[in-house]
Amino acid sequence: xxxxxxxxxxxxxxxxxxxxxxxxxxxxxxxxxxxxxxxxxxxxxxxxxxxxxxxxxxxxxxxxxxxxxxxxxxxxxxxxxxxxxxxxxxxxxxxxxxxxxxxxxxxxxxxxxxxxxxxxxxxxxxxxxxxxxxxxxxxxxxxxxxxxxxxxxxxxxxxxxxxxxxxxxxxxxxxxxxxxxxxxxxxxxxxxxxxxxxxxxxxxxxxxxxxxxxxxxxxxxxxxxxxxxxxxxxxxxxxxxxxxxxxxxxxxxxxxxxxxxxxxxxxxxxxxxxxxxxxxxxxxxxxxxxxxxxxxxxxxxxxxxxxxxxxxxxxxxxxxxx
Length: 322
Prior knowledge:
By secondary structure, the chain is an alpha/beta fold. The chain is built from 13 helices and 14 strands.
């Protein structure tokens, strides 16, 4: 049985449904971006959104992917850092309740919160207070955490800590794991471009990117970017929103379409796509089927608020995947 380990920022998502985009302008947050904010700014976001509809869920890009895999019956674990507070306990319990082994490091700092502000058109803007999540360091890692796993899934946000990312990838490779990375955010890619390219070329087997991230990584449009990324990794996957996704391994390129849906909130779409694709991959279903499962999960999560799929939808998905 293939076991998958995830590592990333352990964040609790606070999903805020905006009535218009005025709040984004007021707070100076560019629509569609992922901005890192301090504790004061995070508090400001909370105060500005007091009268809006909100919900809480455990989040962070890699954690969302691991959740999806666990829901499909895969044996999973997650490495991250949380505070010794209610938010941290919420994150821990959410992993346990979803059959994910928590490999969490505890910190004295407050737990990280991702304020996801969802516009009426489904576009999301993040004001992320990393808190304890960012304290995960190379010193927290040892070989035992990687032993017994077959694949490591890493979120691209970790690239902001070069030492941590390199140590993570080295430990995974030394322990025989395949490595999958999701490039996470175009601005993070731009800010760490040379280092990220070096890491992908040296250690990474599977790269997930959306159109903007692929462009930030290669300077090219999706079709050309796919070829470029596949030169330095075994499998390259680019998600192109409504146009679906393209997958390349060696000389084989596959195009995956999307279901026609009404997008409510795109939070977690890429993370769940990765979960579906990896599930297909480890079950040897081929790239087309794996991409279709990824697309199914992504389109389902977009129809809801937040990065989680409801239990009734999971029952339907598991049937469809079978």
